[in-house]
């Protein structure tokens, strides 16, 4: 099917998927480029594919002008896909919990690292950046299709898991070196906001406070780096 | 001194410091906000301070409109400072070498991690993003004032250090787990471009190829994360 008008209702709906509000309402999101489309295909979550080049495989063919409208990148990709949001899966043994992470690049980076170090679940608080934000998707390099990410009220969630999981929270002052902590089979690691760390009201759920051994003249690491080093340590320990 | 005109020659020069070309020509760069100014003061590299608020300490007072012109942030800071670029210092034992890193956030993140894990020198190739780019400065959280970062032709540089330093290069295929490599006192770690890794022409300088132990289904980590985990491993080993 060929669409040529910018005011076509489908085009308008696709474009609205750039907002979190409309993604939430429809349960759909938008991805760009062959690498992401390949990863989405593996997961069978593609609803429809849009292209402005006739030689490409697609469900809808549009003009270059429409494609530019839908794209968030400087140089537009050959294809854009509309995907169904991922289904929530049951929790496994290692959970990364993110409290108020604001930088989409950080969230994408943590998704990649979580998969690399066998954390198969990520639970994000209601104030963390949207998983389906296009910058998060790009920074995750398509890895978000292979991990279970769910959004929850973190207090409720921690109340539910606190008897089953060892809960680790970073604290530069009272934390113990992660290397000196014995780790249980079921473990949840909480990473806090880039500037303020983990909220006080969540700290009471900690089984242990941990830290990364480093030169004390440096105040903190980037949140994505800290999360990755800790998950690496827990992976190495298995 | 009070400046009120947007076409004042000083204002024009300050604004030009947003470009790499003019920073290179003048040896100056621009920083925003109290946290960065505090770090720059410790290092005594501030040439002059600009503010639009009379109660602030500054060398030049400007209008809010001029301040907006100079600022790269959404909400402008009370003060902006013009700094002298940092002097090159003699190399110490642990060097991080960056080959064609493009993302300013990644460079800033690596600067923070380098300091945290006692890498006191960073050598960046001629094709890596400018150290004095405002996004790099912000992502480094002011840590760039406390580390020696120099820009070099990497082939020339590696030729010069190859007899004195153990040179480590990441390679997911032929690399050995970093944990299984014995580390010399003087060590240089090369991190490659986000998409393409380390250039072929630099690989011949490797003393050892290394990798990070992880789930093989994941193609790669974010470059800043990979650099940080490797520096952490080398720090932990000391």
- Spatial strand arrangement across the major sheet of chain A: 8-7-6-11-9-12-10
The gyration radius over C-alpha positions of chain A equals 20 Å
Query: Helices and strands of chain A: which structural class?
Result: alpha/beta
Count every helix of chain A, treating DSSP H or I runs of 4 or more residues as helices.
Answer: 9
CATH topology term of the largest domain in chain A:
Alpha/beta knot
Question: How many individual domains of chain A?
Answer: 2
* Structural shape of chain A: elongated
> What characterizes the major β-sheet of chain A?
7 strands, parallel
> SSE string of chain A, helix = H, strand = E?
EHHEHEEHEEHEHEHEEEHEH
Greatest contact pair?
Answer: A-B, 31 and 31 residues
User: What kind of oligomer do you see?
Assistant: homodimer
Task: Provide the CATH superfamily of the largest domain in chain A.
Answer: SPOUT methyltransferase, trefoil knot domain
Q: Strand portion of chain A, in percent?
A: 15-25%
Spatial separation of the terminal alpha carbons of chain A: 52 Å
The percentage helix of chain A is 25-40%
According to CATH, what is the class of the largest domain in chain A?
A: Alpha Beta
* Whole-number mean pLDDT of chain A: 94
Describe this protein's structure.
The structure is a homodimer of 238-residue chains. Chain A has 9 helices and 12 strands. The radius of gyration of chain A is 20 Å and the shape is elongated. The relative contact order of chain A is 0.14. In chain A, helix 5 packs parallel to helix 9. Chain A folds into 2 domains: 83 residues, 60s Ribosomal Protein L30, Chain: A (2-Layer Sandwich); 143 residues, Alpha/beta knot. Chain A has a 7-stranded parallel sheet with strand order 8-7-6-11-9-12-10. A 5-stranded mixed sheet of chain A has the order 1-4-3-5-2. The mean pLDDT of chain A is 94. Chain A has 238 residues and is of the alpha/beta class. The termini of chain A are far apart. Chains A and B meet through helix 5 and helix 9 of A and helix 5 and helix 9 of B.
């Amino acid at each position: 099917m060929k669409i040529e008008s910018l005011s076509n209702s489908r085009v308008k709906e696709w474009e609205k998927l750039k907002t979190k509000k409309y993604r939430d309402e429809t349960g759909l999101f938008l991805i760009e480029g062959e690498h992401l489309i390949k990863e989405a295909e593996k997961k069978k979550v593609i609803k429809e594919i849009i292209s402005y080049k006739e030689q490409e495989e697609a469900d809808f063919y549009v003009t270059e002008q429409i494609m530019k409208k839908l794209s968030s990148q400087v140089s537009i990709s050959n294809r854009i896909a509309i995907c169904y949001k991922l289904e929530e899966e049951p929790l496994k043994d290692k959970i990364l919990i993110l409290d108020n992470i604001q930088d989409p690049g950080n969230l994408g980076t943590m998704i990649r690292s979580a998969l690399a170090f066998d954390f198969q679940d990520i639970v994000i608080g209601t104030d963390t950046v949207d998983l389906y934000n296009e910058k998060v998707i790009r920074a995750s390099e398509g890895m978000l299709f292979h991990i279970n990410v769910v959004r929850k009220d973190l207090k409720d969630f921690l109340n539910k898991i606190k008897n089953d999981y060892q809960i680790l929270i970073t604290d530069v002052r009272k934390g113990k070196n992660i290397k000196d902590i014995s780790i249980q089979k079921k473990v949840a690691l909480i990473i806090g906001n880039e500037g303020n760390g983990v909220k006080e009201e969540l700290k009471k759920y900690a089984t242990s406070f941990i830290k990364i051994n480093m030169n004390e003249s440096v105040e903190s690491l980037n949140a994505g780096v800290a999360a990755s080093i800790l998950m690496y340590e827990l992976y190495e320990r298995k």
